[in-house]
Amino acid sequence: MPKKRSSKGRLEEMLDSRRRAEQGNGSRGSHYRGGREDDGTRTGFQNNGRDGNMFVMEEQPFSSSRTHDNPFTSTTAGASSRSRGSNRNSGSRPRRHSLTAQLNASIDLGTGRRTSKVSVNGADGLGPGDDDEDDDEMILLAEEPEHDPVLHRHRSFSPGILGRLGIGRDARPDFRYDDYSTIDWARDTALELKRKKESVRFQGYISQAWDAASGWVLMGAIGVLCGVFAGFIDIGAEWLSDIKEGVCPRAFWLSRKHCCWAEELAEQRDTCELWKSWGEMAGYSIEDDARLAGASFAVRYFAYMGWAALLAGICALLVVRISPYAAGSGIPEVKTILSGFIIRGYFSLWTLAVKALGMVAAVAAGLSLGKEGPLVHVACCCGNALSYLFAKYRLNEAKRREVLSGASAAGVSVAFGAPVGGVLFSLEEVSYYFPHKTMWRSFFAAMVGAVVLSNLNPFLSGHLVKFYVEFDYPWHWFELIPFIIIGVFGGLYGAFFNRFNLNWCSFRNQSALRKYGITEVVCVALVTALLSFPNRFTRSSAADTIAALFSECAPGSVDPLCDDDRSIIMGDLLLACAFKALITIFTFGIKAPAGLFIPTMFVGATFGRVIGMVVEDIVASHESVSMIANACPNPDTCITPGLYAMVGAAATLGGVTRMTVSLVVIMFELTGGLTYILPLMLAVMISKWVGDAFNRDGIYDRHIRLKGFPFLDTKEEFSFATRAVDVMQPPVSADEPPVVLPCDGLTVAGLEDIIRNHTFTGFPIVNNRRDMLPRGYLIRSDALDALAEYKHDPDCDMSAPVQFFEDDAEETSFSRAVGDAMPSEQALDVTAAVHRDVFQVSHTMVMPTVIELFRRMGIRQAIVMREGRLVGILTKKDVIKHMHVMTARHANVQYH
Amino acid sequence: MPKKRSSKGRLEEMLDSRRRAEQGNGSRGSHYRGGREDDGTRTGFQNNGRDGNMFVMEEQPFSSSRTHDNPFTSTTAGASSRSRGSNRNSGSRPRRHSLTAQLNASIDLGTGRRTSKVSVNGADGLGPGDDDEDDDEMILLAEEPEHDPVLHRHRSFSPGILGRLGIGRDARPDFRYDDYSTIDWARDTALELKRKKESVRFQGYISQAWDAASGWVLMGAIGVLCGVFAGFIDIGAEWLSDIKEGVCPRAFWLSRKHCCWAEELAEQRDTCELWKSWGEMAGYSIEDDARLAGASFAVRYFAYMGWAALLAGICALLVVRISPYAAGSGIPEVKTILSGFIIRGYFSLWTLAVKALGMVAAVAAGLSLGKEGPLVHVACCCGNALSYLFAKYRLNEAKRREVLSGASAAGVSVAFGAPVGGVLFSLEEVSYYFPHKTMWRSFFAAMVGAVVLSNLNPFLSGHLVKFYVEFDYPWHWFELIPFIIIGVFGGLYGAFFNRFNLNWCSFRNQSALRKYGITEVVCVALVTALLSFPNRFTRSSAADTIAALFSECAPGSVDPLCDDDRSIIMGDLLLACAFKALITIFTFGIKAPAGLFIPTMFVGATFGRVIGMVVEDIVASHESVSMIANACPNPDTCITPGLYAMVGAAATLGGVTRMTVSLVVIMFELTGGLTYILPLMLAVMISKWVGDAFNRDGIYDRHIRLKGFPFLDTKEEFSFATRAVDVMQPPVSADEPPVVLPCDGLTVAGLEDIIRNHTFTGFPIVNNRRDMLPRGYLIRSDALDALAEYKHDPDCDMSAPVQFFEDDAEETSFSRAVGDAMPSEQALDVTAAVHRDVFQVSHTMVMPTVIELFRRMGIRQAIVMREGRLVGILTKKDVIKHMHVMTARHANVQYH
């Protein structure tokens, strides 16, 4: 049903031009300007709206760095970035998607005319035979013209079976989306529908049952693999950590606990004769005189630092040379990827291997980092690799994200031995979409992972984590006061840590430091070891200390925490707390796999334990106060300092990550009882409130913004009554029509011209530039593919029309507009690449609703309509930018 | 930017009419017909699409009943319903919304022209003074014309403070939505934005802080109230249950346990000399000879039945006479209301009182029902009542639903002593929208409720439920086989129960039985008591029996389960299981508050315990089999039959409700340890799969459909590639344009005509009927209000134009079209009632995406666009209908 406006009269054209003029001049009534207070700022973004992959945050003071080694750092701000961004888009486009634009130079024998046809899987043509087309595609790619800078692309080698499994950082390109681009959930839904329909048609009952069961099989396999990896990492880290202090001469590959496992008494299993410290190995027995003891101490100190530097160096080498993606905790990237972003190779098998090995080395080196966050990354790598075994998930980015949600639940489950907490962590912190089906499967994967790990029994304790505690002493209502103090401390620490860690990371990115990644890791490890060794609480691994802090002093315990000299203990604890708090700022962000949970818990647990000891003293010295006397018949066992340590750990974690339910549930699963859930909840709640008063987001969200990912936070509340028309591109003030592809009379040359001159990632298709009635949407890369294929034909005609729709009437309309000189059989056929289902929003729609639409539907762009006419385009990046600008501007009146 | 088409040339008009003709004739290309295989069925719905509140399911065999006493029952099917539905809409419209259409007969002094103006809170005019406008509104209502059948409405009395709190079933009308209508989440979002903006402008810092904190205060208050109600219900039901068997002569208001609380030995607290059975009270001591024992038995039997009938009668009287909404479990209605439906009075204080008292009586009467589901309803009533104390929640239906989500979490939390399980239950089963903020607050409410209840200590055991168990015996891998058998049983039972309960409920609705609600309850109670008394496992309350089934036989236990005569025990258990399974079918649905959890757990626990005993026997007789010998060093303590009972309870619950994660977490919190989570999960998983193989939905979803609520299930997967154009109204095949309100030249008489002739709940506004460019949406009731107000003016001019937009150019365009004869100051001004932000979908959009849009954005309707032109309207009901039709049609090829 084409619009036949080409033969319209003069009057109508006059009216149209007048309408256009009104549109541009901002004569749209007062509500258009109502919510627009940000013209000044936004002009800097105006043309930057939809170009390339850069995304620059204004509010990060140090983010405009120009690094090249870190692929995530947002490179530029302002005008210069724009040209660079577009260069990158046009100049060298690495690893272009290829299955998307499966190019067929087909000859239609029926009509005899030759059409260059581009077919897109999302919209069409995913038959059961698609798996075999990789080779065809390679041949087609080899025939591509190299001379055209717009169309130049790297050749990728045939992926093969290893490539399919993601081996090699870039070996397995995703065939449908560009790297650093956002997926389209609605499109992938349609793709899955298509696949199901096809499979119903072609497969037997057994295949269908397998297809239905494959999700469960996959989640189970992920659980098993996560459990195995976690066990390997736990055991490996344990052994290498102990190597810093000594060795089992009988069998050097045994950790201290495994070495002493033969001892009959359980208490002796931690320290036995079979295990030799490096001092003893060097011949200085600890029982010798003071001079020898001093020498022994020196040897042990030296060995400790030497091992730390060596292990840290190995770790950094692995990360820098083999897989830079293995650095950091990975949770910011996992969040971004689950929200629909593509970072190719982030979950590859190389990353998996380097992350697992590097984590063992980094933990063993005594760096102030944990393995909980990286385990989520490892779990996602496992999930990604395994999902390639199933066509259902291999070919569908949106479906694969369901698998990754479950995998991250399994990762947390094995990290903390908390399956329910893992599922809630995935739901609350990591996942973007979490339908009920995914929740149930996540739970399954988390359960399987926990069961597998508990059967591996890495700590020989029957528990999945070192700091599992089980005590059931009651707490008293008056203790809520110290718990509140701990909660406030947690919030303050979170705000402090988030601020200075972010500042340091920004500084690193723009200083010369970023060139010396390996040196930095080794130096941090040396400083950490140097300062850790003297303090008995920082010398052993952080998890061991946390376990000691959580547990109670049994009578006659040899634990250093249970000494009689309480003031020295408290001093050491506070020193350890301050040291960890400072060193972690410099550690989180170095080129090593680094989780935040353990150091953060360490800080909280030491502080909490100190508070607990103080309260213990107060109670002991105020036995006669009636409140205390009523609550505690026996003042000696009245206070449980271990509980204070746990509350402290929860509070600091809450302050740093701003997690809520999942954090409480994880702590609840660590203690195995409902008794302490109220103190834990109180501390987490207060620490979140206090932290939020200083800075808004958790550390992961801040790192996401530092790295410049286009992440639309599901938790952030946006409550400004701006409207779609204030955010869309082009802005109303620009007085220019949006860049569109008109159906009537667009030639191939015209299309190429538009694509060359504008770097937007996609273009709306309208009936014509006068009426602007929307008909569809064409992704830039699809258009480029079609153009490339078209121009590959030596006798291509650049003045031929572009055919957007199969409807024949369209061509008639075109012919009439352009004249009969054009042979229509030369048309560039992009019908299969056109998306007809782009979301439409009214220009008056309030932004909170628009934002919910983007969040909940996971769309990349929407077209803005005014009375049936397209007046602008809204992209995810525009929306995110608007949210940040408005929130930063109105921070003083914003409240929740 | 008005469209000035009124002066278009002849050519353009010709083109337009041709375009319209093409549109109607179905010449739209093949894809339009592709997915449409349901023309035949759908024609029955064609005009029924948007009318009234009726919603009839085709697949429920008995649902076309014509009850009048049950306000939920869908009354009709087919053509007769349509006329009735519209009668109901037009004839007597009870409790019309009024604050929505706050009628202002305002005189604009500036221009001197008189405009009847209708202003809508959602779009405009919610100032801080809105609370005071109820009285103004009453005056305006009193002046309304009574003679017009379309505009006739009931007068509601001024609500006052009790009305505000929801006292009286219908005393507090919601001022903005009709009863039995669906709320518009996007509109309420805008409303909240507006409110925040106003409050920023007018309030001080303290008020703002209070506004921000009020959500937490409210959730805390809900938790406290829930805990108190649960405690009251627990204690009351305990006492009345015991009254059936005997009395505490010392103080008749004490339950057996409270009566015996003075006993020193804990074991004697359940049976002591102070407590007298009715046999003893009648003078027959149990130690007397056989004849007297027989008489004692007869007296006790008679007293048991008498009390049961009496209590059941009281309960039914309360429910039928005072609050019919208190019947049933309430979870189907809570789900529907949380999804955005309005059922006025469902959460009123009368309902709360009747539900709480009725529940005590019903449980005490020994009916086969539990208090867990109704506690969710009670919690929501508390939440609803308390939310009226806060303007933020009182005036916003969408915000109030966040509160109700949290309240249902608190309800489950106090029902099972499982705060985490409660939150997950709310998330998985009940809530529709569950943002992170709500989750955290729900958790808070659930925690507070659990803490309050545990301080009330209703069972004198320190636990929140009777059947809390704490054992930690390991289970063995070979036991997974019996667990799988139990899972299969659970699934089969669920399918069986769901099917026959639904059939019986449908039968009740259409038979004469529905008129004898009270008699039915008493009869069911008598039959239950008659059959319960002889069996020792059914005589005591179901919760007690479940507690006994879950726990283990300690040596020397007096528990009847631990007798040596195992075959008699097993026989009794199986009899109890079969009896409960059958009687529950007839019980769930009677006019009494009735939860499903307890009877379902009873069935599962008895069956599971029997299986456990069988396995125990097998292990005892096959000690020498190597697998058993390896796993169990001591065969006597190898098997834990109590664990089998727990697994059985989880399996039947899974089969009946089809819950997953939340069910496992609730069971996990009941046992307080991770040890048994794998068996529980396995059983729930298998029972869900087996159940799904027979019938698709859980009992709650089936009851929702039986009752005909427009509930768009978030869990249901829809995977048919139909398109928006196949579902929209009017259908393409109808060859008629959609009913719209054109901006150009619609007179007041024309508007009234359209509203009288069509029963749709709303009408899209377009620029004109030729171009069909969408401009907004007008809700039927707003239009009716505006018309009523307009016609109230004696010299109103029915041929005056309707003014939809404030833009002056609009009127100019109108004047030009209608001519200058019309004085524009007489225009009917509906500008404030027009929604400009109605969602638009492309006609080619696949239905799974459209369904996700409806689900995730919570919208009531969307307009279907084809190239910028409105071609149809999609309502939530159309979408639900389509889903059911397609799923029923393709049940044979559908798989997940």
TrEMBL record, chains A, B:
KW Transport (keyword) present: yes
Recorded GO CC terms: early endosome; Golgi apparatus; plasma membrane
Residues passing through the membrane, by range: 213-233, 301-320, 341-367, 373-391, 403-427, 439-456, 477-496, 573-590, 596-615, 636-657, 663-686
Domain of life, source organism: Eukaryota
Stretches the record annotates as Disordered: 1-135
Keyword terms, alphabetized: CBS domain, Chloride, Ion transport, Membrane, Transmembrane, Transmembrane helix, Transport
Record's compositionally biased regions (Basic and acidic residues): 9-22
Pfam families for the chain: CBS, Voltage_CLC
Compositional bias of kind Polar residues: 61-79
GO MF annotations, alphabetized: voltage-gated chloride channel activity
Composition-biased stretches (Low complexity): 80-92
Record's bilayer topology term: Multi-pass membrane protein
Family matches, as InterPro entries: CBS_dom, CBS_dom_sf, Cl-channel_core, ClC
Places the protein is found: Membrane
Domain CBS residues, every copy: 834-892
Family: Belongs to the chloride channel (TC 2.A.49) family.
Stated name of the protein: Chloride channel protein
UniProt source species: Salpingoeca rosetta (strain ATCC 50818 / BSB-021)
